Amino acid sequence: MEKIVIIGSGCAGWTAAIYAARANLRPLVLTGAQPGGLLTTTTIVENYPGFPEGVDGYELMTRMQKQAERFGAQTRFATVEAVDFSRRPFRLTVDGEPLEAQAVIIATGASHRRLGLESEAKLETRGVTYCATCDGALPIFRNQPLVVVGGGDSACEEALYLTRFGSIVYLVHRRDALRASKIMADRALSHPKIKPVWNAVVADILDPEAGKVTGVRLRNVKTGAEETLPCAGVFIAIGHVPNTGLFRGQVKMDEAGYILPERGTMTSVPGVFVAGDCADRVYRQAVTAAGMGCAAAIDAERYLASIESAH
Ligand code: NAP
After folding, report:
1. Does 154 contact ligand 1 (Cβ within 6 A)?
2. Whole-angstrom Cα distance, residue 251 to residue 204?
3. The CATH number of domain 114-236 is 3.40.50.10300
4. Is 24 exposed, middle or buried (0-12, 13-18, 19+ CB in 10 A)?
5. Residue 45 alpha carbon, nearest atom of ligand 1
6. pLDDT number for residue 120
7. What is the pLDDT of residues 104-156, one digit of tens each?
8. Residues near 224 by Cβ (< 8 Å), separated by ≥ 6?
9. Position 45 confidence tier, pLDDT thresholds 50, 70, 90
10. To the nearest whole percent, how much of the chain has pLDDT over 90?
11. Is 135 annotated as catalytic?
12. Pocket flag, ligand 1, residue 158 (CB < 6 Å)
């Protein structure tokens, strides 16, 4: 039986692992299908303290992992399929195998939100993507018009990155003002290759029949008018949804699926803690996830000490 199992290997998970490992608890980190989490799909992280020149997202996560392992954290590249928090020790099913734990830290993060179009699903990996850094350099996008959907920091970051490859980058946003921070918005809007398309939503992506992206059908939300914009790629950056489906019915969450901590980082189940984007619909920063990971490890350590002293 494990003392602490940490589900997830983003900023929150690795920071929890560093603290739990330094408390001699030998935490087991189950990485999930995307080791390192969403930060590994970004380029330079410019706002993580301690890196005045910025740091590559993948490198930051690898360093956190090394730091956790140096103090005794165990890493397993595995996916949790089910949990049962109604019994103690807690029971998890990991790649088909049962696993028991005295305490669990949920740090499963969030995933990219989808537009929900049939054509989007059909053309995923054929020109529709959720990650410019992963896919932007592909030959199909070189010197072609590209579309980024969204108005937040992610959309601006993706659009800026894509200016290296595309002939022009259309930033399609459903309102007439960006949600992004001022610095990112200014950078994007002042770039000669980025052209904003305001008050527009993607009604459809063309052309599933052709098996590739040839354009988007845009609808103006004010006038209802539709137009077709030719492009070779659609980069969707419209926010995130928490990865918490696995825990539905086990711990309390809000209507959008964000887990609700009750006391500190403890969830509605004593012994189960939560950290990072799966519990944060407000800040969603690498550094806030790391901070919450630290808090969850400290809370879990105190919980374990309290059940030990009760025996
Ligand atoms: P976000 O801030 O939630 O922005 C999502 C954007 O997508 C909004 O502009 C939203 O429009 C739009 N949107 C949502 N659903 C839509 C739909 N169904 N159809 C069309 N548009 C839709 O998400 P984010 O940009 O991923 O950023 C998440 C967090 O990470 C933020 O806190 C951000 O500051 C942070 N972040 C920071 C950096 C950086 O500092 N370099 C980079 C990336 C992310 P509305 O504006 O109308 O709601």
Report:
1. yes
2. 37
3. no
4. exposed
5. 41
6. 97
7. 999 999 999 999 999 999 999 899 999 898 789 889 999 999 999 999 999 99
8. none
9. confident
10. 91
11. yes
12. no
Q: Counting every residue, how long is the chain?
A: 311
Of ligand 1's listed atoms, the one at least distance from the Cα of 183 is 40
- Distance (Å, rounded) from C-alpha 293 to C-alpha 278? 12
Q: What is the pLDDT of residues 250-275, one digit of tens each?
A: 999 999 999 999 999 999 999 999 99
Q: What angle do CA 304, 70, 243 make, to 5 degrees?
A: 60
**231 is annotated as an active-site residue:** no
CA distance 10 to 16: 10
Q: Which of 42, 131, 172, 174 to mutate to test the pocket of ligand 1 (most atoms within 8 A of CB)?
A: 174
The single residue of 131, 156, 231, 278 carrying the catalytic annotation is: 131
Question: Which of 117, 149, 153 has most ligand 1 atoms within 8 Å of CB, for mutation?
Answer: 153
Residue nearest to atom 43 of ligand 1 (CA): 154
Q: Where residue 278 falls among pLDDT bands split at 50, 70, 90?
A: very high
* Token pair belonging to 252: 């309390």
**Confidence at residue 134, expressed as pLDDT on a 0 to 100 scale:** 77
* Annotated catalytic residue, options 11, 84, 95, 134: 134
Q: Model pTM?
A: 0.81
- For the domain 2-111+240-310, what is the CATH code? 3.50.50.60
Q: Which atom of ligand 1 is nearest to the CA of 47?
A: 40
CB 169 within 8 A of CB 192: no
Please tell me the predicted confidence (pLDDT) of residue 47. Answer: 87
Question: Is 299 marked active-site?
Answer: no
User: Where in the chain are all domains bearing CATH 3.50.50.60?
Assistant: 2-111+240-310, 114-236
Task: Give the per-residue pLDDT at 298.
Answer: 98
